[in-house]
Amino acid sequence: MIYTTLLNIAIFQGMVLGLIILKSSLFNSNSNRYLACLLFTLSIVLLNYVFELEDVFTSYPLLRFIDAIDWIFLLPVFTFLFIINRIDDAVKNRQKIYLCLIPFAYSAVLNITQDLDHVAGIYTIPESGIDLINILGLIHLALAVTFMPFLPIYSYFMIRHLKDSQEKKWIITLLTIISSLVFAFLITALAGLFLQYDISSTMSVLALSATFIIHWTAYIGIYKYKLAKNKDAVYNFLNNDFAISYSNLEIVENSTPEEYRESITVDNLYFQKLELLCKEQHIYTDSTLNREKVAEKLGISAGYVSQIINTITGDNFANYINQYRVEAVKEMMSNSEYENYNLLTMGLESGFTSKTTFYKAFKKVTGQTPNEYKNTSK
């Protein structure tokens, strides 16, 4: 009873934590979305295990469709995608990340195909097809023993591209814990398959370990390490001092911005939201963007926008936004998809209003004109 209660608490926490990460702009980023998916997957794995312990599948056999899917395949996948989306785009773009989903898709299709016969009784697999299913099952096993160890090992090589040493330490720990869980599960499953070993007690320990991962991620990953880069803001968020709508990235607070005494450092909540607006929403491409528009999105005054940028970056609002626009142009120059664009078109696409402001800002940021930069970067 106590054991299943612990599992149920972890399942609930994993689901809630995943939803918080997905729905809140305080945490939301491409990499963190995969962390949320990792938590969802762990919760589903635990839920299936609880269903098995409570003999739920006997009363509701159609639930076996969920249990039949090898969700464990997704643990190394989402861990890898979480890591790969925290490194430089130049490295990330070289990875064919869609390939890592192939084993899970293959496993899901194979298992569901069999369950449509064994569980749902929609059709009966003919004897001639059973041999084919067995062959496909061997391929499934081969994918498990090769793919599941390979992806975590490859993820360790990707971690070296992280620049933040504190972030690297936390992610190495997360990867090590997930990898240990995956390896232990794989070895246990193989022992049960080939040695007829009773794996129930080992699986109970592994399930308990999965609950630890969820609790640990909540404390270390979100509060202590600060995925949102702001411990006080995270604390207030989790205690409902304010709510954040990701759809429009506006803050709805119980108090005014002036009353919320947020320190003006790089961890400042509003500066982090501004960075998110630029990096994820690309608001700098709006040529009419000004302090007032940004202030409205952040839910603070235009003066406070300037104060944050001046204090943290040592620059003014216009130069701060132009740096993002220049970086966007540089990316276009190196991307073959934009080879038919001339330099002015790239500048206008990135949010500059004229050739003069584009060239002036580009020279200020890079020390070269766009033409000089393009020639030297070839």
TrEMBL record:
Domain HTH araC/xylS-type: 280-376
Domain of life according to the entry: Bacteria
SUPFAM superfamilies xref list: Homeodomain-like
Any GO molecular function: DNA-binding transcription factor activity
Gene3D superfamilies recorded: Homeodomain-like
Transmembrane segments: 6-22, 34-51, 63-84, 96-113, 133-159, 171-197, 203-222
Keywords: DNA-binding, Membrane, Transcription, Transcription regulation, Transmembrane, Transmembrane helix
Entry-linked InterPro entries: Homeodomain-like_sf (IPR009057), HTH_AraC (IPR018060), HTH_AraC-typ_CS (IPR018062)
UniProt-recorded name of the protein: AraC family transcriptional regulator
Species of origin: Flavobacterium pectinovorum
Organism placement in taxonomy: Bacteria, Pseudomonadati, Bacteroidota, Flavobacteriia, Flavobacteriales
